[in-house]
């Protein structure tokens, strides 16, 4: 049996959470490297998180299927491994036996690498990257062409439909793009490089079916991929489906800041953040007004009111706005909320949260005050029904007991789905939150 026949191909595993593709961020290995079972071979970015993918096979790397920046569909080849006692694979080809492994024992962050039972089946040899060439006659020219005629122009080598769509949407003529993939295959990175080149605008004729605008000189092209694409799709769906209303109120947060200072003075080893206190107040409000801890099931024509509060926390990261979720937040003490919030937001910014931690929220808390703004009318995190926003806390003139004083003031806003409740419920929730911010002792009375 030859080495080519014994090569093992690891397919991009099922990522879970409805994810069907992943973008290659960085290869951890190169062709010719020796890898061990469950060694991390590539870092990929899904629509939910950045994860390292371990390979279930040991041996020498023969082929890396895809370059950094390229999107790979689930179930397609990711890396080809050959036994250490084998030879090299013929250049330009990747003929091999596909093997479904029983499982290496390793589990990816949020999902496993197993493909099921260890059954084997042979696949016919096929080209790995380039389409089949035209039939060649005995004198070295395409069949049907006279020996004196020039060879027909070579068509652009494109395998990925994502690359074709990207080129079409931005008016890039693929015949003018130089492919850097094996066999001259045009990759996504090649199209993006063509978009940034001065010559890119010569092909920037809008496709009437797509409606793309021409790309002008100096324009910056930012493809909607990964997390940014999911954010765009989700926000568009939320605005399209949810009849949202925003109400707001200014509150005196002086008492809340004093309470936080008192707690932290008593427990300096376990400091509590303002966000943790606001989360505790939201949980108190949702206990009184559970209608806001809901989602609308449009297919079944019903409102589903959640028994547990899975609290989403909007966090700005280098990869975009993420909303990690604290599951069963109603069971946590204030100190536990503070610890979980700190750990979760840090992991979100580091890109190390598993996909499951970024879905399933029932209510979101958004502290946009960290950006130095007072108010906002945020879009609800679909399919949730409500979102509380908190502006910056600043010194403002405020009337206290009939006297003008300088107090710490913030603005609270509640955006809610008008299908799940009317203004009375929404106003009652927001007023309860505002009262607890101004008089934190009410939290104890509400327990």
TrEMBL record:
User: Which UniProt keywords are given for this protein, alphabetically ordered?
Assistant: Acyltransferase, Lipoyl, Pyruvate, Transferase
Q: Where is the signal peptide?
A: none
Class of enzymatic activity (EC top level): transferase
- Where the record annotates domain Peripheral subunit-binding (PSBD), the positions are 158-195
Q: What is its EC number?
A: 2.3.1.-
Lipoyl-binding domain mapped to chain residues = 7-82
Provide GO CC annotations from the record.
cytoplasm
Keyword match Transferase: yes
Show the PROSITE patterns listed in the entry. Answer: BIOTINYL_LIPOYL, LIPOYL, PSBD
Q: Name one GO molecular function term.
A: acetyltransferase activity
> Which Pfam families does this UniProt record tie to the protein?
2-oxoacid_dh (PF00198), Biotin_lipoyl (PF00364), E3_binding (PF02817)
| Record-linked SUPFAM superfamilies | CoA-dependent acyltransferases, Peripheral subunit-binding domain of 2-oxo acid dehydrogenase complex, Single hybrid motif
Query: Which cofactors does it use?
Result: (R)-lipoate
Q: Family membership, please give it.
A: Belongs to the 2-oxoacid dehydrogenase family.
The molecule here is called Dihydrolipoamide acetyltransferase component of pyruvate dehydrogenase complex
Please give the organism: Micromonospora saelicesensis
**Classification of source organism:** Bacteria, Bacillati, Actinomycetota, Actinomycetes, Micromonosporales
């Amino acid at each position: 049996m030859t080495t080519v026949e014994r090569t093992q191909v690891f397919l991009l595993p099922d990522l879970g959470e409805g994810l069907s593709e992943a973008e290659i961020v960085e290869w951890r290995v190169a062709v010719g490297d020796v890898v061990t079972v469950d060694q991390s071979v590539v870092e990929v970015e899904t629509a939910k998180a950045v994860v390292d993918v371990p390979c279930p096979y040991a041996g020498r790397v023969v082929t890396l299927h895809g370059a950094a920046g390229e999107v790979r569909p689930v179930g397609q080849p990711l890396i080809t491994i050959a036994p250490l006692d084998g030879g090299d694979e013929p250049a330009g080809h990747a003929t091999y036996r596909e093997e479904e492994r029983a499982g290496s024992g390793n589990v990816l962050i949020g999902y496993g690498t197993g493909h099921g039972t260890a059954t084997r089946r042979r696949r016919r040899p096929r080209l790995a990257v380039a389409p089949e060439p035209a039939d060649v006659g005995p004198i070295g020219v395409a069949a049907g062409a006279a020996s004196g005629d020039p060879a027909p122009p070579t068509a652009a080598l494109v395998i990925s439909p994502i690359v074709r769509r990207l080129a079409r949407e931005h008016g890039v003529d693929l015949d003018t793009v130089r492919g850097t993939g094996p066999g001259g295959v045009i990759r996504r990175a090649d199209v993006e490089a063509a978009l940034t080149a001065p010559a890119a605008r010569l092909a920037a004729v809008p496709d009437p079916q797509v409606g793309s605008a021409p790309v002008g000189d100096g324009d910056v092209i930012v493809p909607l991929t990964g997390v940014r694409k999911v954010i765009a799709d989700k926000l568009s769906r939320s605005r399209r489906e949810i009849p949202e209303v925003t109400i707001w109120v200014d509150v005196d947060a002086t008492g809340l800041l004093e309470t936080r200072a008192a707690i932290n003075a008593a427990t300096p080893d376990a400091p509590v953040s303002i966000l943790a206190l606001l989360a505790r107040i939201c949980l108190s409000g949702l206990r009184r007004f559970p209608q806001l801890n809901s989602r609308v099931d449009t297919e079944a024509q019903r409102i589903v009111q959640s028994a547990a509060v899975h609290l989403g926390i909007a966090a700005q990261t280098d990869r975009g706005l993420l909303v990690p979720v604290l599951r069963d937040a109603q069971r946590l003490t204030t100190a536990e909320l503070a610890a979980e919030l700190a750990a979760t937001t840090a992991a979100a910014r580091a890109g190390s949260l598993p996909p499951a931690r970024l879905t399933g929220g029932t209510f979101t808390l958004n502290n946009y005050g960290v950006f130095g703004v007072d108010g906002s009318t945020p879009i609800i995190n679909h399919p949730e029904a409500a979102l509380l926003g908190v502006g910056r806390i600043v010194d403002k003139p405020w009337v206290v007991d009939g006297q003008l004083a300088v107090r710490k003031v913030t603005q609270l806003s509640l955006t809610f789905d008008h299908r799940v409740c009317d203004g009375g419920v929404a106003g009652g929730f927001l007023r309860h939150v505002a009262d607890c911010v101004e008089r934190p002792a009410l939290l104890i009375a509400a327990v």
